[in-house]
Structure formats: C-alpha cells, structure tokens
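Quick one:
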Amino acid sequence: MIEIYFKTIRDEEFKRTDEVRAGCWIYARNATFDDLSKISELTTLDIPDLKDSLDKYEIPRIESHGNCVIFFTRYPGQGEIGLHTEALTIILTDTYLITISPDSSNIIDNILKMHLHIATTQKAKLLLYILLRITQDFTSAIKNSRHVILLHEEGKIDGKAIIVLTKNEEILNQYLTSLVPMRNLLEALSTERYLTLYEKDLDLLHDLMLAVHQSEDLCRVNVKSIRSLRDSYQIIFTNDVNKTIKRLTALTIIFSIPTMMASIYGMNVALPMQNYPHAFPIVMGIAATSCLCAVILFLKQRWL
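Output:
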C-alpha cells in the first residue's frame, strides 16, 4: 500500500495526501510488486532495481542508478521467528523521497507522528534523520540486551540462563551484521559521491557516524561478555559434575564394604566364627567401623 505525505517547514506534522507532487514523501507500507510497478513509473528505476527492497534478508548497502540513490538499511525488530532485524529501503530522487518496507515499519510510523522541523522537500536531511532514528533504536535494543546480561551475571546458573544468553548473543550478532554495513554506507555518504550535503547536514552525518561506531563497539563488548559468561558457566558446570562424580564414587565405595562382607559370609563354606553365637554383631560392627573409616577418609579428601 502506497501512502503519500507532504510537509513544509512551517507545518507541524506530516500531512497525508492523495496527490503525488514534487517534494513529497512516498511510503510503500507492506510493499508488493504492484507498489514497485507504481514507484518504477514515478522514477527512472526498473523493477529489477527495486525487487531487492522486498527481500526481508537484504543487507544494508548503497546503490546509484542514474539520478536515483537507493539505501538498503535494517533496523531492530521481530519481523519473523529467528529474524531480529527488519529491512527498510530508502530511495532519493531529484523529486521524491521514497521508503519501501516489506512490512509495516515502526520506525517510519513513529517519525510520521512526530513534530519535526524538517520538510519533505529536505530529502537529504530527512534521510539522515531516518538513519539517526535507526541508530538510536539499535543503541536502545543493545542496552536492553546488556541489562539482561547484567541480570544473569549475578543470577542463578541454570539451563534457562544459558538459553537466554544464547538468544541474546544471536540478537547481537544480527545487529552487528546490520551495523557494520551501515557504517560503510555512512562512510560512502561522507564522500558526497552519492548526494550533496549542506554544512549542517555534514555535521549531522558525522554525529551519526560516531553514534553507529559507538553502537557497534557496545554490541561487540556485549557479545564478548556473553561468551565470557558462557565460558564461566561451562567451568562451573564441569566443576559441579566432578564434585558429583566424586561424591557418588565415595558413596559406592562406602556401601560396597558391607555388601562385600555380607557376600563373603553368605557362602556355603566354612567361615571364621560360624559357630560363635555373637558372630553376626561382630561382623556388622566390623562392617560399620570400616564404613565409618571410609567416611572419615573421604571427608578429609573433600569427596563428601
């Protein structure tokens, strides 16, 4: 579904319109091939140039086709099971700013609700603001993962904790696969090879590049923290297993003493004290004493 918005610098909010005009913002929500056909008619782009915008797994990059520049980006979101980022395509032409989302984009929806001092005719500035919002969302999502990691650093060590940490590691790795190409995308923009930026736009771009670098570094630190935690958990689990094996081994030896003596005195052969009336308590006393000695020995060895 295609939505058209227009806003001047004096307007407080983005106004939706049915008319495509110069300087408008065209938003393809839940985009389909029919929407791509309409966008192709409005621009110099062909359908093959646009079809990647419907790919939910497309990686961030920048492409130039004639007077059109296409920015493939990703932002934090749960579009599908196992996919923790969503695709968003931004197209700059001489006339329009176009955004294409395979699903409904919460990033774009939130921007459309804001009262920004940006006009839709300021295409480069609006592009940078969208990228800034994406970076801010990445930073916020990474901090949420960091909060989860801190909770498990002092929490109970169990299978659920391992699952949570593994899931957060997967999320952060997906964030990294989006942040690194986005950093390259911004560095390409800074060369002004794809579009001309004003001085204030360049300042915003430099701030944006710094924010992406910080988000990337924070993401890497959190991934390392998760790996360190998992290694610590593995050492603790291994130590617990060793203690359990020692304890079970000690108990097996202790209980094998009376079992062995009972086996010996259960044989149908001549045995010491077989005719002695107090043979049973004596044998049981010897067995109990042997078990007690074994218990004391294993306690000193810290096996029990």
